[in-house]
Amino acid sequence: MDIHTHGLPERETGEAVYFLNRIVGKERLSDEPMHMPFSVGIHPWYIEGDGRAQLEALWKVARLPEVWLIGEAGLDKNSPDLPLQQTLFETQALLAEELRKPLVVHCVRAWQELLGSYRKLHPLSAWIIHGFRGKRALAEQLLNAGFYLSFGAHFQAEALQAAYPHRFFLETDESPLPIQTIYQHAADSLSLPVEEVAEQAERNWEKLTMI
On the chain, which terminus has fewer CB atoms closer than 10 Å, C or N? Predict the structure, then answer.
């Protein structure tokens, strides 16, 4: 299971499920086949104006059955207008809550603001921080608050160990590495068979869809 990717492999083997991310304002949902699972959201890098038109576009597609997650949405201190980012992020979080779909979170140097939004909204739907590269101490703080962490090609082994087994996912994001390679890397870091890690990720997803 690849919980977050921006591109599909040239040849799909049937061994993996890919959650393809689409960015409102940058891409159109109709650009890809409609038979596969998507995540759809407003990325903080691609906010247009006050974001209202993008929110309207998101509302139109978010209810489609092939949209399994909302996002990636988030907060990024390397991008302008953090207050606007936070408003749009929380609006998307409320949409995810209404639709009972997990929220894929992008966060760069805005952890306290993210934690503040989480405490404010008290979500029942899962918030999954994608591409987590932080150290174990930050991972534990986020895990204790209630987040899930998704790890890509680059991660801290101790952070993955903190999230495993019940609060982790794996992803390719924009990496050219196959998702199978990332699973093997994770399994090596956990000293576990790769099949066991893959089965646990599937169980974690099944649990989220029952919330």
Answer: C
